[in-house]
Amino acid sequence: MIGLDDGLLDREYVLPGSTVPVRLARLSLDGDGGSVSLVRFPPGWTRPGRGHYLAGEEFVVFEGELRVSGVGYLPGDWGWLPAGAPRFESATPSGALALACFDGPPKWVAGDGPSPVPPRRVRLGSVAVPPGGLELLAGTVLHERPPAVPDADVEVLALTERRWGLLEAGREPPSGRLLLRRR
After folding, report:
1. What predicted TM-score, i.e. pTM, was given to this entire model?
2. pLDDT band with cut points at 50, 70 and 90 for residue 90
3. Lower Cβ count inside 10 Å, N or C end of the chain?
4. How many Å apart are CA 18 and CA 137, to the nearest integer?
């Protein structure tokens, strides 16, 4: 597993429509164009215009505050923005660090998106998690303790340890509160 504090942010990248570059580390890329990236937003970063992605995005904020469409996501928050969800008033006043997962190629389109599905936010540190896990999204489940050994490959985010990686089928998951995502 990769530690998210291990100096991975190796390149500058300008997000479409934004004012200044972010630091980005691509952690995985799948055959359908989906990806997982660690993103460091600098203080004062903004995306003033309106737009949307043609892919859905789920993310976890580790540091700072990330504002998207009038919603502030704080450390420990999980967010989901479906494909086509309008994005506006995006900013990081004091900077932010987030792990972002797109379910397809993150193609940006200027203007309002067509999605009527509202974004979601869950505070991962304080939400009650039932014994079998809390399904946040189809294929993404929050677990309080490691579940049984998975029967298929999953991406795992160990929240307390701030580590991310691919957990192969049949391997023992790490301990602690985990976010598991089927590939």
Report:
1. 0.91
2. very high
3. C
4. 28
